[in-house]
Structure formats: structure tokens, C-alpha cells
Design a protein that fits this description.
about 70 residues; 3 strands; about 40% helix
């Protein structure tokens, strides 16, 4: 959502899969970024979030195959 004062969108946080660090704004190439996230803390949890979602999707696929 754009700021009413500046007319720009607020900076988001991204997890860089190459450096394994949180970045503010789009600093790395897109292939290395996970996000966007609203906070640095949320971006830091990106690998765990990705792993949990992957496991959930796999379980859903396995259940659909039965």
C-alpha cells in the first residue's frame, strides 16, 4: 500500500538465499530473493516457512493420490 504522504510503497524485507541474510529492499537478484515480508524478523524465518509449506503441499499431494 502506498503512503499517503510520500506516494511511495514502504520498503519490504527479503531473505537472500545466496548470502542467507535479510535485506531491506530489492538488493539481490530476483533468483536469490524470498519475500517480500513486512519485517526483518519475518524475513529471517523464510527458510523455515518455505520448508513447512513444502511439507504441507507434499502431504496434500500424497493424500490426493490415495
Amino acid at each position: 500500500m502506498k503512503s499517503e504522504i510520500t506516494g511511495t510503497e514502504p520498503e519490504k524485507y527479503w531473505y537472500n538465499t545466496k548470502t542467507r541474510e535479510v535485506e531491506k529492499g530489492k538488493q539481490a537478484m530476483a533468483i536469490y530473493r524470498l519475500g517480500p515480508f513486512e519485517s526483518a524478523a519475518a524475513a529471517a524465518q523464510a527458510p523455515e516457512i518455505l520448508q513447512a509449506r513444502s511439507a504441507q503441499w507434499q502431504a496434500e499431494e500424497d493424500a490426493a493420490d490415495e
